[in-house]
Amino acid sequence: MLDFAIFAVTFLLALVGAVLYLYPASRQAAGIPGITPTEEKDGNLPDIVNSGSLHEFLVNLHERYGPVVSFWFGRRLVVSLGTVDVLKQHINPNKTSDPFETMLKSLLRYQSGGGSVSENHMRKKLYENGVTNSLKSNFALLLKLSEELLDKWLSYPETQHVPLSQHMLGFAMKSVTQMVMGSTFEDDQEVIRFQKNHGTVWSEIGKGFLDGSLDKNTTRKKQYEDALMQLESVLRNIIKERKGRNFSQYIFIDSLVQGNLNDQQRQSFTLLARMVSVSLTS
User: Fold this and answer.
1) Is the model's pTM score more than 0.90?
2) What is 117-281's CATH number, 3.30.565.10, 1.10.630.10, 3.40.47.10, 3.40.640.10?
3) Is the pLDDT confidence value at 252 over 70?
């Protein structure tokens, strides 16, 4: 009887241990606020899909839990940093296997080539210089576009509703697109055309890839591939134009042209930079 009791207790403890290990909802990120998985295999992917996009999911998560939050990307625990100060404390250019980076690069056909630590440091410096120099060179442009938007608001009657989110998104698209890719996008129609394709790609990155619906819908997949192809065509022309020439306006893509990258890497990283920058600016 005693032997059976010992066996029963041992079996029960082993069963509880197996459940705690195999079912991620019972696992917590030690010391990091966040949410537990909603599904054993997919973690919080259903929550991301229900939020409408990865960006909206992260915005809501940070509003609820603060600047450092955790969630589950499948069976993998992910920590999201929501402020620049926190990011500076934890950034590590040696680690390049982040699942989101892998997902984005896969969708944008980016090939990293598995660079060494020194190469990763070089690229990080290249990108940082690109952002810094682009901001310095285009500060007057930001002021000009800001003043144009302010004048537009001041022209409205006091009682008229201002669609702030829509206007700020438009401001972000116009300013960021010009700082990243140059004067081609002084024309509002060019910005709108680029944004339409950008929206198609970003929508599928935020949802279609995560829930697997992109590969199941041939119409949507063709729209996605056509939009990405048009974005790449625009970027190829800009890269060709900027190579070996000097311009009074320094743009982000110039840093990539000067760096030791191939055209596919330049195109992919420009799209990533533009996507993230528009979201942050708006």
Assistant:
1) no
2) 1.10.630.10
3) yes
Angle between helices 164-181 and 139-154 (to 10 degrees): 160
Of residues 191, 168, 169, 180, the one with CA closest to residue 141:
180
Beta bridge partners of 78: 71
Q: Would you state the structure tokens that stand for residue 77, as one six-digit string? A: 């625990």
Beta bridge partners of 71: 78
Q: What is the pLDDT of residue 191?
A: 86
- Quote the DSSP letter at residue 81: E
pLDDT tens digits along 25-35: 445 555 788 88
Tokens of 280: 């942050």
- If 0-12 CB within 10 Å is exposed, 13-18 middle and 19+ buried, where does residue 64 land? exposed
DSSP class of residue 76 equals: E
209 versus 156: which is more confidently predicted? 156
Q: Which of 58, 49, 102 has the alpha carbon at shortest distance from 82?
A: 58
Q: How far apart are CA 266 and CA 79, in angstroms?
A: 27
Using the structure block, give the residue that is written with the tokens 């070996």: 244
Mean pLDDT lowest among 90-104, 113-127, 233-247: 90-104
Rg of the chain's alpha carbons, rounded to an integer? 23
Give the residue from 179, 259, 207 showing the smallest Cα distance to 46.
Answer: 207
- Whether 37 has a pLDDT exceeding 50, the answer reads yes
110 vs 256: CA distance, rounded Å = 14
pLDDT at 275: 58
- Return the domain boundaries, the chain: 2-91, 117-281
- What whole-number distance in Å separates Cα of residue 277 and Cα of residue 125? 18
More confident call, 264 vs 229:
229
Place of tokens 């596919």: 264
- The residue assigned the tokens 């129609």 is 189
